[in-house]
Amino acid sequence: MSEFADAARNGLTPAALEAVLREVGAARYHNRHPLHHKMTAGALTKGQLQAWALNRYCYQAVIPRKDAMIIARSEDPEFRAEWRKRIEDHDGSTGWDGGIARWLKLAVGLGLDADLVKGERLALPSTRFAVGAYLSFCTNRSLLESVASSLTELFSPVIIGERVPAMLAKYSYVTSDILEYFAPRPKQASRDSEFALAYVLQHATDPQKQQAVIDALVFKCDVLWAMLDALERAYGEGGGIPPGAFVPEAT
């Protein structure tokens, strides 16, 4: 059982609810994962970085789809107009000049074939399952829970601030050009998380709704953690790559 399972049992003020949500991120966000620590320490092989980029593409590609599902469920045109910015950030104006394209540029810069990455068929089964679970969550849970699940963006500037300088310093083949995806993300994430947090604090008005938004953020942290677990299991020392998944070239 999650340590946050009964956090809202007696009801929380908006300030107290925000504090709990930030505690969830401090305890469970994936910048605490061992694989992230290995990445920032310069301890990953090029093949392991390729596997990370290839699998993470599946998550990047699903973001505008889950955001479209959230928009479709809102009757508030002001909400829809604000949330639409997320799709524009990832798809751009043409579909291939936004965040997804910049992630693909990262993967190609690490030596992967663009069509192979876009096809997603060599991603780990666990990755596809986790990404599908996130899309299903945002499709089938309440609008409030779906919005709350996006609050991992509160913490993404932290992980970007750890990841980018370390990758540039520790891996000679990584350049600022191929890490272009990350340049606008702290500003975008801060804008989006501020809106989502304000929405959650306004609409989580009773203990049941408050617990639901806490659980939604725990779930989303679990999705991101599970993706790194799968990578470490498959591509770490003594790991076993599942049949049909990406196999790095021997170095």
Write up what this structure looks like:
This protein has about 250 residues and is mainly α. It has one domain: Up-down Bundle (Heme Oxygenase, Chain A). The chain has eleven helices and no strands. The chain has helices spanning about 15-30, 35-40, 45-70, 75-90, 100-110, 115-120, 125-140, 145-150, 155-170, 185-205, 205-235. Helix 3 runs parallel beside helix 7. The chain is globular. The termini are far apart. The model has no long low-confidence stretch (mean pLDDT about 95).
- What percentage of amino acids are in beta strands? under 5%
The tally of strands reads: 0
* CATH-defined superfamily: Heme oxygenase-like
Count of domains: 1
Shape: globular
How far apart are the termini?
42 Å
Low-confidence segments:
none
Short description:
The chain has 251 residues and is an all-alpha fold.
Key traits:
251 residues; mainly alpha; Heme Oxygenase, Chain A; 11 helices; globular
Topology of this protein?
Elements: H1 14-28, H2 34-40, H3 46-72, H4 77-91, H5 99-109, H6 114-119, H7 125-140, H8 143-149, H9 156-170, H10 185-203, H11 207-235
Helix pairs in contact: 1-11, 3-4, 3-5, 3-7, 3-11, 7-11, 8-10, 8-11
